[in-house]
Amino acid sequence: MIIRQVEERDTESFATLIREVENTTNFMLFGPGERKFNPEAQRKMIKAFTAEINSNIFLAESVNELTGYLIAKGGSASRNKHTAYLVIGIKEEFRGAGIGTMLFEELFSWGKEAGIRRLELTVMSENRAGITLYKKMGFEVEGVKKDSLLVDGQYIDELYMARIL
Fold first, then answer.
1. Cα 80 vs. chain centroid, distance in angstroms?
2. Lower CB density within 10 Å: C or N end of the chain?
């Protein structure tokens, strides 16, 4: 398994990976089939992320197959450029195999070099595996967003978690 930064050539395979993750879990913001893929918009997003010093996309790859991703979107104002908001996804058949840990370790190394001090994320309160991973990686719960999401007709709380590098 290798962890690497996204490249423009990854546009379609990255979009496919995102769709696969969203179609096999109920813990992502977008539900199955909800996200519309626009190749040009995806390509522009990758170019923008690679151009920003405080944003990045990391991919986990196994034998030329993308298995996971971790997106870090840096703050855009001078007062929050030291922060990054995170989104992580792992293909169903690779969950629990340590890929999340490897992605976070690469993120931490890059973040320190990029001047990132604070990492933030939200996680559905029912996502026990996600919460366990985030706590293992040093994230702490800072708050609860009550009834933050509507999933299958049920209101779901999200935990707001962060880690200082």
1. 19
2. N
